[in-house]
Write a structure and sequence with these properties.
InterPro entries: GIY-YIG_endonuc, GIY-YIG_endonuc_sf, UPF0213_domain. By secondary structure, this protein is an alpha+beta fold. It contains four helices and three strands; from the N terminus they run ββαβααα.
Length: 103
């Protein structure tokens, strides 16, 4: 059974890169070596692997990767830090029509 990994790299410019692979070591090495000049991380090296999570099903990994790619940097940082309280706060809807804000 294969394991699929969703990972987050922190770039030298403090931006995060989210990716997915079935071979984490190989993929991280590819990022470090800069094999693809068009890759988001190419000009942002050096990179640090700051988060990884394994999945048994590729569909689960794809879903999670797409989900966290849309997150703010603050929310990604909370995930990386394991700060579930902050992650929950940052996930709350804050618009005026949200039920928490109705009288």
């Amino acid at each position: 059974m294969k394991t699929y990994y969703v990972y987050i790299l922190k770039c030298k410019d403090e931006l995060f890169y989210v990716g997915m692979t079935n071979n984490l070591e190989r993929r991280i090495n590819e990022h470090h070596e800069g094999l693809n000049r068009e890759c988001f991380t190419y000009k942002r090296r050096p990179l640090a692997l700051v988060f990884q999570q394994g999945f048994n099903e590729v569909e689960q990994a794809i879903y999670f990767e797409k989900k966290i790619k849309k997150w703010s940097s603050q929310k990604k940082a909370a995930l990386i830090d394991g700060n579930n309280n902050m992650l929950q706060i940052l996930s709350e809807c804050r618009n005026a029509t949200h039920f928490k804000y109705k009288e």
